[in-house]
Design a protein that fits this description.
The complex is a heterodimer of chains A (749) and B (159). In chain A, 27% of the residues lie in helices and 26% in strands. The model of chain A has no long low-confidence stretch (mean pLDDT 94). Chain A is α+β, with helices and mostly antiparallel strands. In chain A, the strands form eight sheets. Chain A has an eight-stranded mixed beta sheet. In chain A, strands 11-19-18-17-12-32 form a six-stranded mixed beta sheet, sandwiched between helices. In chain A, strands 20-21-27-28-31 form a five-stranded mixed beta sheet, sandwiched between helices. Chain B is an alpha+beta fold. Helices cover 33% and strands 17% of the residues of chain B. Chain B is built from five helices and five strands, in the order E-E-H-E-E-E-H-H-H-H. Chain B has helices spanning 26-33, 90-97, 107-120, 126-132, 144-158, and strands spanning 4-11, 14-21, 52-55, 58-61, 74-76. Chain B has a five-stranded mixed beta sheet, with helices on both faces. In chain B, helix 2 packs across helix 5. Chain B starts with a strand and ends with a helix. In chain B, 54% of the residues are buried. The model of chain B has no long low-confidence stretch (mean pLDDT 96). The chains are: A alpha+beta (749), B alpha+beta (159).
């Protein structure tokens, strides 16, 4: 590990302008919808109008009569080009197009290919579905009720393996179960001075990335080229190779700039449809979803979280937790999400006796999957509201109560895992100080104001996940990073360029980062779990070190890589034999050590999350305004302050929506608000007047220059901090998210 | 087939003549016919602001405005913001300097809304800027650096 002092660093720790800055402010940045392939057919999907039904027939005759329609494809048509009928990252339960049964409203049943988008849409609207309604599992309670019919029959494991499902449960609609038992929670609860039980409910959410899903699949000889915004391009290659029965070398996933992901672009369930259709039609196919269709693709799990804690002498002595996650009609990443949720659920506290059970439950709804925070937000919301409720009941200061129970830097979150590498007590103290201390007051305008805090921690990127990178030092002293880090907006390419520039000792402005193309750029496990800076960044650092070693071999140890003339002489000199450039390779191999914990794998590092909110509540309307939000991250070393603050502030504001306005409203399986009119993400006018993002930097992270990941830290604790602030201001505890004005009104009466 | 209408307009300083179906919307005309793909489309409901362009100086949603309605008018898109020499304009520079974008999908629309605002009000306060951005959704930045960038650009433009 290299831990340099900031003063020695040229680029790292500085506000380097983003490598994609010029492209993004001039409109030249190419996103998925900007990929233009001449002759591509436009696809439109026929979606189920019912949440659960048997498919009697799919009649495409009228669609084929629509001018410019070229083909109308059903699951039987796609089956001709599929080696495998179903896909899914953990459980292969998802048909490419629905077969025999539809399991959620909006599930794709057929698709129409046409010369124009309008003709494709008209054709899709002309397809006649004959459906026979089946009973709807509208809620997790319905799905878990004794005698509930199973939504799925036999299934097999997917790319992540069935092991992730936990499995083995008798309950037919459980897609995954996580169980942890430490000590004797029942005995300790029976012996505790005080026992508290609370249940919280969190609405399901949509990512609402501004860029809707778009796929352009292009048959090119025996290679299928798939242009699509995606965070898991190599997993997509594996999945498509398996579905289409082709070698991985005959699938190329090319990733343009991604217009927001937040988890929605990890395992995208329409990619296989477009890919199979392109193969079936042997024509380029472009499938671009509308915003309403994006709502019918994936989302964040709605959840019921139940916490029971025993407290003696101000210390938490036992905790039992039950998490019910509504994973919708198909497992997607739900079984992985609930394992992470279950492991993180106890919160970063010393709890000697613990039981956790977390379930992913099938229902007849849009599948839920990855969402920024990956299962941390739901349990930590419960944990931190529960913590405040306990403190209030015992007459304790909520900050002091936390400080008395919080794990400290170097403590075990669970025995055998990586000791905590974040200083949560210090972060909490910083947040409270910045927000001006806990207080409840009446504002001059008559509103009730209060302050709330929340603390959480997220185990991140189990061990080390593999990354490969290439750095090319060109003869003029400029350099190109060739790597498969997806630029979602988080600044991955900028950080990789900074790491390469810093390591090589060349000016940042002379480093470029390649676009991602799985046929060209080397393997990277995936862009998720706040891992790119740490793992791929390390691979880039090693590739740059490899370049330096080669350069020194031909030009001597004294050569200055920033001296373009010297580099040119070294590279092009007859003696070196290098010819045009030096190619360095850096690898980070998989190292996911098992841990003797219920989760089973050791964390690569911990993302600590501490938030403090000050809110004002209008007693006349119940409207909540966030006056100030403070987020503190323990970042190791900040590589790019703009990027780091951007992740923290952006994540915090995103979660203001989770706290106050966002909910997917389902009525008996029907999604009633799939539009930005009725699904309310934060607007510029909803943003807290002050958002402060503070960092603790010890330079002790496992990434380049002591960095850690932080893309998911702030978001985890925003909603509970706001809920706790609302309770402090009003005395009303709302146990549902979002906190609706009428919930406050009703309860305040 | 829909009736066809003719367009005689100026787009980013260039004269444009075309014949379009009456139901063609401006975003399709800009992106598909003129190749100006900097203008993005997200909601197609005139709500999210990603498709914002200027028509005779006023911010409009290209996703719903009929292309034929620009006949006789002047359109400015994100591609027209930089100088003829390619130098970034003050708002573009301020967006870069303040980290006012991440994924960049909302950025063209944000820049156009801000351009219209500063043309009308050279010294908007923070509240005015937030009100003006009410129709432009950003999912990445939390809006804070966007507001800061617009204020900085306004300062530069006034001096």
């Amino acid at each position: 590990m290299i831990v340099a002092e900031p003063r020695d660093l040229q680029t790292v720790g500085r506000e380097a302008a983003r490598v994609d800055a010029h492209a993004k402010v001039t409109g030249t940045a190419c996103f998925g919808a900007d990929v233009h392939v001449p002759g591509a057919l436009h696809a439109a999907l026929v979606r189920s109008p019912l949440p659960h039904a048997r498919i009697r027939s799919v009649d495409t005759a009228a669609a084929l009569a629509v001018p410019d329609v070229v083909a109308a494809l059903t699951s039987d048509d796609l089956a001709r080009v599929l080696a495998r009928r179903r896909f899914g990252p953990v459980i292969r339960d998802t048909p490419v197009l629905a077969e025999e049964v539809v399991r959620y409203e909006g599930e794709p049943v057929a698709l129409v290919l046409a010369a124009t988008p309008a003709a494709a849409r008209a054709g899709a609207d002309a397809v006649r579905l004959e459906l026979e309604e089946l009973p709807v599992l509208a809620t997790v309670e319905d799905a878990l009720a004794p005698g509930a019919a199973p939504l799925h029959g036999e299934t097999e494991g997917g790319e992540f393996g069935a092991a992730w499902s936990g499995g083995g449960d008798a309950a037919p609609n459980v897609a995954g179960h996580y169980h942890d038992l430490r000590g004797d929670p029942d005995g300790a609860l029976a012996a505790a001075e005080h026992v508290f039980s609370h249940e919280y409910r969190l609405a399901p959410l949509q990512h609402y990335a501004l860029e809707n899903h778009v796929v352009t699949a292009v048959p090119d000889g025996d290679v299928l080229v798939v242009h699509t915004p995606n965070q898991y391009p190599f997993l997509m290659v594996r999945m498509l190779a398996g579905l289409l029965g082709r070698p991985e070398s005959s699938i190329r996933v090319v990733v343009p700039y991604v217009g927001g992901g937040f988890g929605s672009k990890e395992y995208v369930n329409v990619v296989p449809i477009a890919a199979a259709a392109a193969v079936a039609a042997n024509r380029p196919v472009r499938l671009e979803l509308s915003v309403e269709e994006a709502f019918r693709s994936s989302g964040r799990h709605g959840a019921i979280v139940r916490f029971t804690s025993g407290v003696t002498g101000g210390r938490i002595v036992a905790r039992k937790i039950e998490l019910l996650f509504d994973t919708g009609a198909y497992a997607d990443q739900g079984p992985r999400v609930i394992r992470q949720a279950g492991y993180r659920a106890p919160g970063p506290y010393r709890i000697p006796n613990l039981q956790v059970d977390a379930y992913a439950v099938y229902t007849n709804k849009v599948p839920a999957g990855a969402y920024r925070g990956f299962g941390a937000s739901q349990p930590i919301h419960g944990c931190e509201c529960h913590t405040d409720e306990i403190a209030a009941a015992l007459g304790l200061d909520p900050v002091e109560f936390r400080l008395a129970n919080l794990l400290e830097l170097g403590d075990d979150f669970a025995e055998g895992d990586l000791p905590l590498d974040c200083d949560l007590p210090k972060a909490l103290t910083m947040a409270v100080e910045r927000v001006g201390g806990l207080r409840a007051e009446r504002l001059p305008d008559g509103r009730a104001a209060g302050v709330g805090v929340a603390v959480g921690v997220k185990n991140t990127a189990s061990g080390r996940l593999p990354s490969r990178a290439i750095v090319r030092l060109h003869r003029d002293g400029s350099a190109t990073v060739v790597a498969s880090g997806i630029e979602l907006g988080q600044g991955a390419h900028t950080v990789l360029a900074q790491v390469a520039a810093e390591t090589l000792g060349v000016p940042y402005e002379r480093v470029r980062v390649s676009a991602v193309d799985t046929g060209v750029t080397p393997f990277d496990q995936r862009t998720s779990s706040s891992r790119t800076t740490v793992h791929l960044g390390t691979a880039v650092q090693r590739a740059a070190e490899d370049v330096l070693a080669q350069l020194r071999e031909v030009a001597g140890d004294e050569v200055d890589p920033a001296d373009a003339a010297a580099v040119a002489a070294a590279i092009t000199g007859a003696a070196s034999g290098l010819g045009g450039e030096i190619v360095g390779v850096g690898t980070v191999d998989q190292d996911a050590p098992e841990a003797p914990t219920a989760f089973g794998m050791r964390a690569g590092y911990w993302e600590g999350s501490v938030g403090a909110a000050r809110v004002a509540v209008d007693p006349g309307t119940g409207a909540v305004e966030v006056l100030q939000y403070v987020t503190v991250a323990d970042a190791g070393r900040v590589i790019n302050p703009h990027g780091a603050h951007g992740q923290e502030v952006g994540g915090a504001v995103m979660a203001v929506g989770h706290a106050l306005t966002e909910a997917l409203d389902f009525d008996a399986g029907y999604l009633t608000n799939p539009s930005p009119v009725d699904y309310r993400v934060p607007l510029a006018t909803d943003v807290p007047g002050v958002v402060d993002s503070l960092f603790i930097e010890r330079g002790d992270g496992p990434g380049p220059f002591g960095s850690k990941g932080l893309g998911e830290s702030s978001i985890i604790t925003v909603a509970p901090a706001i809920a706790n602030a609302v309770a402090a201001a009003t005395g009303v505890r709302v146990r549902e998210l979002p906190i609706r004005p009428w919930a406050l009104l009703d309860r305040a009466r | 087939m829909a009736a066809e209408l003719s367009i005689d307009a100026v787009v980013n300083g260039q004269a444009v003549q075309a014949t379009v179906p009456a139901n063609r919307v401006l975003s399709e005309f800009l992106r598909d016919d003129l190749g100006l793909t900097g203008t993005k489309v997200s909601c197609a409901l005139e709500l999210c602001g990603t498709c914002t362009v200027l028509l005779d100086g006023a911010a409009v949603s290209a996703c719903t405005l009929l292309a034929a309605e620009i006949d006789g008018g002047e359109v400015l898109t994100v591609e027209g913001l930089a100088g003829a020499d390619g130098a970034l304009g003050p708002l573009q520079r301020a967006f870069v300097e303040h980290g006012a974008f991440q994924c960049g999908f909302c950025t063209p629309g944000m820049l156009m809304t801000a351009t219209a605002l500063l043309a009308r009000d050279p010294d908007p306060d923070e509240e005015t800027i937030r009100e003006e951005l009410h129709g432009n959704i950003c999912r990445c930045t939390g809006y804070v650096p966007i507001v800061a960038a617009i204020r900085a650009a306004a300062r530069e433009l006034r001096t």
